[in-house]
Amino acid sequence: MKRWRKVLLAAVGSLTLALAFGPFLIPVPPLAGLQEAKALAEPDSRFIRVPLGSDDLEVHYKERGTGEPTLILLHGFGASVFSWREIMAPLAAAHRVIAFDRPAFGLTERPLRGEWGTPADWARGLPYSAEAQADLTVNLMDALGVEKAVLVGNSAGGAIAILTALKYPQRVQALVLISPAVYSGGPNAFVQWLLRTPQMQHIGPLIARRIQDWGIDFARSAWHDPQRITDEIWAGYTAPLQIKNWDRALWELTSASRANNLPAQLDRLTLPVLVITGDDDRIVPTEQSVRLAQALPHASLAVIPACGHVAHEECPEATLTAIEQFLASLN
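Structure (tokenized):
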């Protein structure tokens, strides 16, 4: 019995050592051929430094039009301002429209630990957590002289829009939520702890790089008709993967994830809300958007036929019609 106990203890000890030190033995070679973000800037790209925590962040944004209300566009996971290409100009015919790249995406700065902020900032999840992005949204509004806005958010950007409205109700006039990721929850406490361990921080960029393999399948599942994803559209989706530290920033975003607890706070959203979804949304199932519209005190719902998760890209005309009718009702 003693002999087997020693064998068991030795096995457990070996496994513990392997888990503790094994990840550090995995090489994480730097990606070659990456560029600075501004090298990919377009003629209408703008950059501004926005305060966040003890530091500030260089945010990439685009702006068009004039007129009230001002619209702030928040893209989803793996997207960028590029995702608003179909509806931004039409909306700008009557409104001031601002779209920006959320941290870890597009051309917005991708800070790393030890190079930005303080340890206390990173302990709070800055600059990549949802809470930090809600703060950044309002701080960007301050920097651009926007007192109050209608937030338009897709998927994870929809969750950020809701969180911003909950945290800063005086700054948000209304919400337009396109397939918002509200009921997805988030990692539990153990997974949160695991993601932030030194071992996972070391190998995390390797995990993040896998998006290059599964990203196209994810994009296809976001469209009702994936055959409409042209080479030009795919190039727009993947352009940010040419930027330095994209993999490390994507992992920082992942490790900063928290359970959003939004469903329990929906009754606090007493402002006007428009929920838009495709009838074939396979990322945030259509029934979740229907459920959200029913749970909100003052929400209307638009279900677009033959459309998927990114209605503003795949079905821009119907999306614009729904948004313009909603905005007209605010007057």
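The chain has one domain: 40-329. Residues 2-21 form the longest helix (20 residues).
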